[in-house]
Amino acid sequence: MTSLSALTLPDHTQLPDSDGTFVKNWQEHPQSILLTDSIKLVLEELHSDSRYCIGQDLGIYWRLTDPPEKGAEAPDWFYVPNVPPTLDGRMRRSYVLWKEYVAPLIVLEFVSGDGSEERDKTPPSQGEGGNVGKFWIYEQAIRVPYYGIYEVAKAQVEVYHLIDNTYQLMSANERGHYPIAPLGVELGIWQGLYQNAELPWLRWWDAQGNLLLTGEESADVERQKRERIVEKLRSLSAEQLNALGIDPEMLD
Questions:
Q1: For 133, which of 62, 99, 122, 208 could close a Cys bridge (C-beta 3.0–4.6 Å)?
Q2: pTM of the model
Q3: From CA 156, how far away is CA 170, in angstroms rounded?
Q4: Calpha distance 203→70 (Å, rounded)
C-alpha cells in the first residue's frame, strides 16, 4: 500500500523558484514596484487582517510536471486575495495552487515581444513538448478573473474578464481605464516621470478617476502643500502672524 507521504504534493519550499531566464524588459521591475506601491493602501483597507499576496515575476504552480518548472507560469504581476503573505514565517518562493486553492484575482503580463506569447491559447492536448499557452493557462486552468496584457512599446493595455469560463475583452470607460470591480479601482496608462524615466506606465486610479499615488508621490504632495502654506504665511505681517499665534521665526 502506498504511504500517505508518497502521495503528498510538493509545496513552495520543494519546487524550483526560477527557470533561469533573465528579465526581458528593463521597465518590468520598476513597473511592478509602481503597481504594488500605489495600490498598497487600497489592499490594506480591503484586508484588515493583512491576508493578501502580491507576486512579481513569481511562479504560479498549476500542475505537477517533470521537470517541475514546466508546470509553472510566472506572471509579471499578480494579486491573490485572502491568503497569508508568508507561510510558516517564510517568504513564498512560489505560489502553489494545489496547496492554496485560491486563484489570483488579477494577473498582468508586460509584453516584450509581439504579444503572441501572452495571447497563446494552445491547450495541453496540442502543445509540443508539454508547452501550454499562457492565455489558455490563465483562462482555463487557473481561471483568473482579470487578465491584463500591457504592450510597453505601444503604450496600450488589453484587459480580459472571465465570464462564463471564457475571457471577454473589456471596453475602456470614458477615462480610457478598465474597472477592476472587486478592488474598486481602475487600470490604465499614465504618461509621466517615475524612477527618473519619463515613460508610459501602467497604473491604478480609484473609482472616481483619481490617480493612486505611491508613498513617495504622496510625500511630495504633502511637502508641496506645506510649502504653499508657508509662502502664504510669509506674505502676512508680523502683527497678522501674532494674531494667528504663529511665531515668524518658525517660518524659517
A1: 122
A2: 0.84
A3: 13
A4: 31
Contacting residues for 58 by C-beta, under 8 A, at least 6 apart = 17, 74, 75, 78, 92, 94, 95
* Among 73, 57, 46, residue whose Cα is nearest residue 22: 57
Dihedral of the alpha carbons of 72, 73, 78, 83, in degrees to the nearest 10: -10
**SS3 (DSSP) at 232:** helix
Dist. CA 142–CA 97, nearest whole Å:
8
Start-to-end Cα distance in the chain? 81
Please, are residues 188 and 175 in contact by the beta-carbon 8 Å criterion? yes
Amino acid letter, residue 180? I
For residue 47, the cross-strand partners are: none
Give Cβ neighbours of residue 117 (< 8 Å, ≥ 6 apart): 111, 134
Cα three-residue angle 34-36-37, rounded to 5 degrees: 65
For residue 56, CA distances in Å to 127, 168, 240 come to: 26, 25, 54
Residue 150 burial (CB count, 10 A): 27
Respond yes or no on whether the N-terminal peptide bond of residue 67 is cis (omega within 30° of 0).
Answer: yes
Region of residue 9 (phi > 0: left; psi between -120 and 50: alpha; otherwise: beta): beta
Locate cell 504653499: which residue? 228
Distance CA 245, CA 229 (A): 15
Is the CB of residue 152 less than 8 Å from the CB of residue 27?
yes
Please enumerate in sequence order all residues whose Cβ is within 8 A of that of 137, keeping only pairs 6 or more positions apart, or say none.
62, 73
Q: Of 76, 127, 131, 82, which is closest to residue 105 (Cα–Cα)?
A: 82
How far is the C-alpha of 183 from the C-alpha of 214, rounded, in Å?
17
Which stretches of the chain score pLDDT less than 50? 1-4, 22-23
Cell numbers for 62: 498549476
